[in-house]
What we know:
- The protein has helices at 33-42, 44-53, 89-106, 126-143, 157-166, and strands at residues 5-9, 19-24, 61-65, 73-78, 111-114, 149-154.
- By secondary structure, it is of the alpha/beta class.
- A six-stranded mixed β-sheet has the order 1-6-5-2-4-3, sandwiched between helices.
- The protein is globular and about 40 Å long.
- The model has no long low-confidence stretch (mean pLDDT 96).
Amino acid sequence: MSARFRILSGDITKLEVDAIVNAANRTLLGGGGVDGAIHRAAGPEMLAECRKLGGAKTGEVKATKGYNLRAKWVLHAVGPVYEGGNHREADLLASCYRGALRIAADLRCESIAFPAISCGAYGYPLDEACAIARREIEAWLAAHAMPKTVTLVCFSDDVRQAALKAWM
């Protein structure tokens, strides 16, 4: 594991990082899981800003301010719903990680925290999703100076175990 990467368990909304990634739906207007928690913690100002963005396509990432969060920015990544793996899900999930890292670098973020995108209600198999996250994060860190640190925040022990296995 890189000195620039870490795996944590806990609440992504509580982290003091420059940017957190939201596992968003295509409307960007909140939902369940991580998405709902981030919207609740950020407050109504973020929802108002999201309304102006006009949603996003699967695989896209759009930025808003963090408002009431400790993070300055929220990067809303629309991950794919897993439909068996034959509908470009891996490419779309990889695009979420690359897009968030690119936007974070453009915003001069030194630190970014990701949830396990698409691993909750969207049903992406944990081992496959963590392998994609590892590939994209490691490739980015090898080629770019920013962000300086990347954190994967695990919402459950299952996600943590899959992440640790992927980074072994």
